Amino acid sequence: MPVYPGPNQADLLHENKQEYLFQNETIAPGQASIAHQLARTPGKSYPFGASFQIIFSGNPGTFRLDVQTADLDQDSSFVTVSSLTAGLNGAYQGRIELPTFWAKYVRVLLVTLTNPVNTSVLVSR
Q: What's the fold here for domain 11-124?
């Protein structure tokens, strides 16, 4: 997946689906992923949450990965709502859960990464 390509290019992600924001890529600190528009969930279950599986190909060292949301698919509109800086399992994987999700768009931003390992981030609805 490419890094954030610019405004108004987000793919639509429906409920009960998954998409990679980064897929086994070497990402430089400070780069944001592509954005996805999260489809509105009909019925009483709205809003529907989203989860993020973070997978590093090896020991990332010191890292920070931010989940960012926005109502406009513009770089300046994204705001950090959750961060992962620790808590990886033995396979260098971690999770972020957003049990309720109101924003229209989501992406991740790799803020810091000490060791040059590949990064994958899978978003699930």
A: Jelly Rolls (2.60.120)
Cα angle 115, 121, 124 (rounded to 5 degrees) comes to 160
Strand partners, 94: 54
pLDDT digits (tens, 9 = 90+) for 14-58: 777 888 999 999 999 999 998 888 877 666 655 578 899 999 999
Domain ranges (residues) in the chain: 11-124
Residue 64 exposed, middle or buried by CB count within 10 Å (0-12, 13-18, 19+): middle
The pTM score is 0.87
CA angle 37, 42, 43 (to 5 degrees): 145
Alpha carbon distance 19, 116 (integer Å): 23
